[in-house]
Automatic annotation (TrEMBL):
HAMAP family: Ribosomal_bL21
Gene: rplU
Protein's recorded name: Large ribosomal subunit protein bL21
The organism's place on the tree of life at top rank: Bacteria
UniProt keyword terms in alphabetical order: Ribonucleoprotein, Ribosomal protein, RNA-binding, rRNA-binding
Pfam families: Ribosomal_L21p
Subunit structure: Part of the 50S ribosomal subunit. Contacts protein L20.
GO CC terms, sorted: cytoplasm; ribonucleoprotein complex; ribosome
UniProt KW Cytoplasm keyword: no
Matching InterPro entries: bL21-like, bL21-like_sf, Ribosomal_bL21
Organism: Homoserinimonas hongtaonis
Glycoprotein listed as a keyword: no
Family designation: Belongs to the bacterial ribosomal protein bL21 family.
Length: 102
C-alpha cells in the first residue's frame, strides 16, 4: 500500500491514488493538473521522510472543480453601548483527485 502525506493549503493531507481531497483554492496549469509537495511517503514497509529523497517524489493531482465552503457568520455585540457588528466569510476551495505518486 502506497500513500503520502502532502502539504497543501497550510495543512497536511493523507492521500492515495484515487483519493478525492478538498483543498484551499489552487490554480491549475493548462492541463488541469497540479503537483503537491510530499512531506512523508510510505511504500509498504519503507518510510521516506528526508528532504533529499522526497525531492525525487512527485504527487500529481487532477483538478475536478472549484467550490466555496460553508458560510461562517461572525457577530459581535457589546451590551448597553449600542455596538453591533455582523460579518460573513466563505472559503474558496478546490476539489482534486490524486492521479499518481511516483
Amino acid at each position: 500500500m502506497v500513500y503520502a502525506i502532502v502539504r497543501a493549503g497550510g495543512r497536511q493531507e493523507k492521500v492515495e491514488v484515487g483519493t478525492v481531497v478538498v483543498l484551499d483554492r489552487i490554480a491549475a496549469n493548462k492541463d488541469g493538473n497540479i503537483e503537491l509537495a510530499p512531506v512523508l511517503l510510505v511504500d509498504g514497509d519503507k518510510i521516506t521522510h528526508d528532504a533529499k529523497s522526497l525531492a525525487k517524489v512527485t504527487v500529481t493531482a487532477e483538478v475536478l472543480g472549484d467550490l466555496r465552503g460553508p458560510k461562517i457568520v461572525i457577530q459581535k455585540f457589546k451590551n448597553k453601548t449600542g455596538y453591533k457588528k455582523r460579518q460573513g466569510h466563505r472559503s474558496e476551495l478546490t476539489r482534486v483527485k490524486i492521479t499518481g505518486i511516483k
